[in-house]
Design a protein that fits this description.
The chain is α/β, with parallel strands linked by helices and about 300 residues long. It has helices at about 10-20, 60-75, 105-115, 145-160, 175-185, 235-245, 265-270, 300-305; strands spanning about 1-5, 25-30, 35-40, 50-55, 80-85, 120-125, 140, 165-170, 195-200, 210-215, 220-230, 250-260, 275-280, 295.
Amino acid sequence: MKLFSGTAHPALAEEVAKLLKIPVAQSEVVRFDNSEVRVRIEEDVRDEKCFVIQSTSSPTDTHLMELFFFCDALRREQAKQINVIMPYFCYARQNIQHRPGEAVSAHVVIRLLESLGVHQIITCDIHDEGSLGIFSVPVTHLSTLPAMAEEVKRYIGEKNVTTQSVAVVSPDQGGIERARTFGTALFGTNAFDLVVVEKRRDQNVKHVSAAIQLFGEVTGKTAVIVDDVTTSGGTLIHAADACMKAGATRVVSAIAHHDLGSGAPVKIQASNIEKLFSTNTIALTDEFRFDKLQEISIASIIAAQIKP
């Protein structure tokens, strides 16, 4: 077995490799002045089972093309299997035509990976699990929710908050099952307060949404907002404001992917959110670090899945 790393998140690849007690396999990624990229495999992979870790986060298209070239290079070198590990699966929110004339971008990414001879795709907390049915190759869908639930449980315990005074909040109707899964991991039962925020999004304006109404009881409770990804922070902040307005005593959040855009860290830091738990599916650069954000490593989750 050989484990390769793209340039999107080499630290995660190194962490996984350390847990597996293997080195990260040698490769070369060269970026030219015209923005083209060249990928070269520098090891003998003939008849080897190969894994490539590449989170297709910002710059999304750059990391995606690099991943495609890794797959092609491995196929040309006659790897026995090409297994792609995409901790963050790009374009997952573009899995339907929201407006006439739009491309269904998630389908395009899936078909391109399949055409390159990928044997298996491993990803974490994809935006819509219904998208998994589109793949014609095996897909392993890993959940980071139990790991985040464990950290949230520890945190609220330090604040002397009992689980009876916690409400799990989905910031929109589409995330109800995700919030339910998180709540079950947090409480060890499916009997807990589940709250849903009705959200309205303007498809003609990017990163604009508004909380309309809150369904459920958060008065006097710690509200834990659960979602798969945050980019602008708008949905998260609006949901937090709605919870505080409805009488919540504090708001914390658990977000699988911190796919943060410019300005989001400042807005979240200044918001009603007391703590934001997220995972390291995406490399966190210094410009996107802020005090309220706490990262949880998923290296052990990936390593357990691909161990020899």
